[in-house]
Amino acid sequence: MEGAMCSALVPHAFNQARSEMKCVNYIVKDEILFREVEGTGFRDFIHDLQPRFMIPNRKKVVKGVWDLYLAEKTKIMSVLSDQRVSITTDTWTSIQNINYIVVTAHFMDHEWKLHKRIINSVKITSYKDDDIERCLDVCLNSWGIKKVFSITVDNARANNGAVKYMAKKLKSLNTLMLDGKYLRMSSSGISIGVALRVSTKLVFIGNVLGPRWKLAFLKISLCNLRAEASKVEAIGDEVKSALLTLYNEYRGVGNLGPLQILDEGDDDGLEDEFDGDDAHSQMLGKMLLKRKEEQQMGISNEVDKYFDPFENPRNKNFNLLDWWKGNQSIYPILSKVAKDIFAIPSSTVASENAFSLGKKIVDPFRSSQTPKMIEALVCTHDWLRADKFNLYKEPTDEKIAFYKELEEIQAMAAKAQGGNAQLSNSTSILLPSTP
């Protein structure tokens, strides 16, 4: 018994700064009032736990909250800098009768884990489209977000102008996909009328990107809705065509990064090496040419290749995101389409959930807080409670080339240094010894 208790003991060194940050985390996570740190009961409790801890006053806690907000925002910005995100936005009014707009970013990291983060909960003058446009613009600029796949909004008329404005803004940055065809997502239901609604089409594409059923499940579902056979086939063709359009868009502007299969520069050197008259060189040259043709065909035909095989639908342990993560090398471009499609929220619920949080934070006891502090509390509370993401990033082709160049320079320097050392030794041998 004593041995078990001893093995559970771990060394602990008291640190005032770390303890203050833990106190700030506690206040933000559990929505505690700032004045609680000055309460006699709280101070007695903390003093009994650690007499050496100097409890920060209310003013110091406020500064700690703001510093924590800035530190967490910097971490998230480093992840979002090269991500294409989908956002949801909605508005609410506080107990102070102040209007707020909430913006939530949805994305998948390189590990194919879905994340959402409230990136803004800011004061807005009114719910008119001009004010919403301005807030969205300021929000995305402050976060350095230039690649937006979709914006999910409710059906309020003011949102139409805001989305059109963002389409023009993103187009000027040359990051708008398909001239904004899929930018606006409505939170209303699915429609299979004469023309497929854009949001419905993306939902269908997301369904088709499930490798166990692909188009089959979509067609069966439409038949169960008593759609005509000709209509079912037409919708299937339309969805496949839309997927191919997205694929071609990503193929034209997307950066494959470390997943790129075909590297023309490396193969050019190999062709020179195998350019000989002997049978061995000719055979290797033909194999190289064949490999390049097969790779090019695979890259240009990922969509058709994807629709050919089916995964076992009876596999109970099947995980959609794990499957796509494991097949990125087979579908390097289509997997990027899938990642962005799967990150699209189907409604504005994510932003609406911030309303209840905001109402807790902006209660009668916090009604004197500034809009900036409200934003810091709402956002940081959301960030601290969210699933953590891996901050590691795969190196780009440019960085890999840079590192290789550094290694070559270091190797040359080491070789030169070794030659100098050898020359120095030889000289010392030839020189007469000093008496």
UniProtKB/TrEMBL annotation:
Keyword Metal-binding recorded: yes
Signal peptide span: none
GO CC terms of this entry: nucleus
UniProt subcellular location: Nucleus
Keywords noted in UniProt: Metal-binding, Nucleus, Zinc, Zinc-finger
One family name in Pfam for this protein: Dimer_Tnp_hAT
Positions of the HAT C-terminal dimerisation domain: 302-384
GO-annotated molecular function: protein dimerization activity; zinc ion binding
Protein known as: HAT C-terminal dimerisation domain-containing protein
